[in-house]
Design brief:
Mean pLDDT: 91
Radius of gyration: 26 Å
Number of strands: 24
Number of domains: 2
CATH topology of the largest domain: Metallo-beta-lactamase, Chain A
Helix content: 10-25%
Strand order of the largest sheet: 1-2-3-4-5-6-9-10-11
Low-confidence stretches: 20-25, 403-408
């Protein structure tokens, strides 16, 4: 094992040094042409194969194992799962045909990129060879990710980031959206030795390394298309029903181990099963079975210590990221800010926490020039989304005439930007007569609505805002820019933490799930569960519907676990100790800070105890 670790460290350092060099030089290595998989390290257990609970030799950690032991194969019948694609390393490892070709500068013939097309799931990939950097953490994740390549003699090495959450095997073995991959291509005539190394801080205890052989096709394959459209595979199933199993209730636990006479401890995988000395742990069958039983459920106790995931800048600057159409995301001042630019001016969704409002205003002015900030929409009353209201309101202008017929309901028409929100946002930001309001009146919404949706047509685009009565709070809305096809969710959806369910201010776990499903009712993907409608979350990176559905699935699974314990009479302390978020804690949890895992679990428990059930 020590030798393997030493080789892995040397391998990693060599790869890091390679990518620290300047732009790549020309190489005689050319992998252009059509290829197919021929020889596999695990011929009967590739990406889409493998029996349930067949994990030997897989370096999964405990959360990765628990995730797999609660996974129901029927989850693949959900709309957002039916057309999910492969990540590039498993596309190349999973069978089918592949084509590679080069893109070169037409004048200098310098290599710009290597392109790849994979038959299964129509994987369309670009490997940039011109030395460009990887995007920031808040850029969108895709199935193919963002790849850069370099030559080292006759070896092409590729480094990939920004991958979606995907399957290592579709038997429940999962890799997170924090995964990075290193690939090596070595050509030997009409063969390519392909090796990949998957590193995942969330679900793998050690890197996963696999090798296969690609053989050059003697003819161009006839079929390259593998298109997919989702459909109703189980009619009548509610949108908030996600197939899964509770801890310790997996019905397929021993199918693989009993069929192939493999001890359960070995079948459950883990890094120790990769090394020969693991056999010694199987010599005592009773001890091996006892050790296996300890791996089937989380050990009760304090919350699992999570690994921080940062997808937001924290450098005191405002970062502008183009999303789609004429919509931009501004990051750096607390919650995400969305800006629609156009000939009429700026329509701004949320204003951050207000610490960097001058810089926010400056960046908006760069986008719209001499046009005003005319409208501000607040998705919530929470301070990280409304803290900049006062300064952005003062910096803006609404050219509507104060004396117009409808201006009588809006006391500051023509004075600064008009702030729009649901009435409950204004209620929470203001205060009853005789009491001190928590926020200055200059930052209150004055153009409010009471139910359903609020709609406008601005900058030649339809804009709809939908109220969610009991999600994070009782005043949450999400905003859909229809022509750009971008949805701004506020804190209904984030990529950085569990939702901050504010029970005192009307929030509920079930209302949060309902709101996510309402968002999914408005989305459409472009190809293979990717692209199409893009999502600006309250915190974190740009997404599409797949990430929203994953977040919804997680909350449904946690809801069902909490509800099952409530049904058995468990107290809130017992529910916390059961670590019901164990397989998600490394990705979304926190043990310190303003919103911890314990706080989220308590809010879920209280919400369900109060009877906030599905609609």
């Amino acid at each position: 094992m020590k030798t393997a670790h030493a080789l892995l460290i040397l391998f990693t350092l060599t790869t890091a040094a390679l990518f620290a060099q300047g732009p790549p030089q020309s190489s005689g290595l050319d992998i252009s042409g059509s290829w197919y998989d021929a020889v596999f390290q695990e011929a009967n257990a590739r990406t889409a194969a493998g029996m349930l609970v067949e994990y030997p030799g897989m370096p999964i950690n405990d959360p990765g194992r628990i995730y797999a032991l609660t996974w129901d194969p029927s989850r693949l019948t959900l709309r957002q799962q039916q057309c999910s694609a492969y990540t590039p390393e498993f596309l190349l490892y999973g069978g089918g045909n592949f084509r590679f070709w080069e893109e070169r500068d037409p004048h200098t013939q310098r290599l710009i990129a290597i392109r790849m097309w994979g038959q299964i799931t129509e994987g369309d990939r670009t490997i940039w060879m011109d030395g460009r950097p990887h995007p920031p953490a808040w850029a969108q994740h895709t199935w193919m990710g963002f790849s850069t390549g370099k030559y080292d003699g006759n070896i092409l090495t590729v480094y990939t980031t920004h991958l979606k959450r995907a399957w290592i095997r579709r038997n429940g073995l999962v890799q997170s959206d924090q995964t990075t991959v290193v690939e090596h291509y070595i050509r030997h005539g009409d063969r390519i030795t392909f090796t990949f190394i998957v590193t995942d801080p969330v679900y793998l205890a050690e890197p996963l390394i696999r090798t296969t052989e690609l053989i050059r096709s003697s003819r161009d394959p006839d079929s390259w298309l593998y298109a997919c459209d989702d459909g109703e595979q189980i009619v009548g199933r509610a949108d908030d029903q996600v197939p899964h199993y509770l801890f310790g209730q997996y019905p397929y636990l021993r199918e693989y181990s009993e069929r192939f006479k493999v001890p359960l401890l070995a079948a459950l995988g883990g890094p120790e099963t990769m090394y020969p000395e693991f056999v010694d742990k199987l010599k005592d069958p009773a001890a091996a079975e006892a050790a296996a039983q300890r791996k089937l459920v989380p050990t009760p106790g304090p919350p699992h210590i999570s690994k921080a995931v940062r997808e937001e800048p924290n450098d005191g600057e405002i970062h502008v990221w183009p999303v789609q159409g004429n919509i931009y995301m501004l990051l750096g001042d607390g919650g995400n800010i969305a800006v629609q630019k156009g000939d009429q001016g700026a329509f701004v969704v949320d204003t951050g926490n207000g610490r960097l409002s001058e810089k926010v205003i400056a960046e908006i002015q760069k986008l719209v020039g001499d046009k005003p900030i005319q409208f501000i929409f607040n998705t919530s009353f929470r301070s990280e989304h409304t803290g900049g209201n006062v300064k952005l309101h003062a910096a803006g202008a609404d050219p509507s005439l104060p004396g117009s017929f409808f201006a009588g309901t809006n006391r500051d028409v023509g004075i600064g930007a008009t702030i729009i929100a649901h009435q409950n946002v204004q209620n929470r930001m203001s205060a009853p007569t005789g009491q001190v309001a928590p926020t200055p009146s200059e930052g209150w919404p004055t153009d409010t609505f009471l139910q359903g949706r609020r709609r406008k047509y601005y900058n030649d685009e339809g804009i709809e805002a939908f109220w969610e009565p009991a999600a994070v709070t009782d005043g949450d809305s999400f905003v859909h820019f229809r022509r750009s096809d971008v949805i701004v969710t506020g804190d209904i959806f984030t990529t950085t933490q569990y939702p901050v369910i504010d029970i005192k201010n009307g929030g509920s776990l079930q209302g949060e799930i309902d709101a996510l499903n309402h968002i999914l009712d408005r989305t459409i993907y472009k190809h293979e569960e990717e692209g199409g409608t893009l999502i600006i979350p309250g915190h974190g990176r740009v997404c599409d519907e797949f990430e929203v559905s994953e977040y919804r699935d997680m909350l449904v699974i946690i809801r069902d676990r909490v509800q099952a314990m409530i049904n058995k009479g468990a107290t809130v302390e017992q529910v916390k100790a059961a670590q019901l978020t164990y397989d998600y804690a490394d990705r979304f949890g926190a043990t310190t800070g303003p919103w911890t895992t314990d706080m989220f679990v308590e809010a879920a428990y209280t919400s369900l105890k109060q009877g906030r059930l599905r609609k």
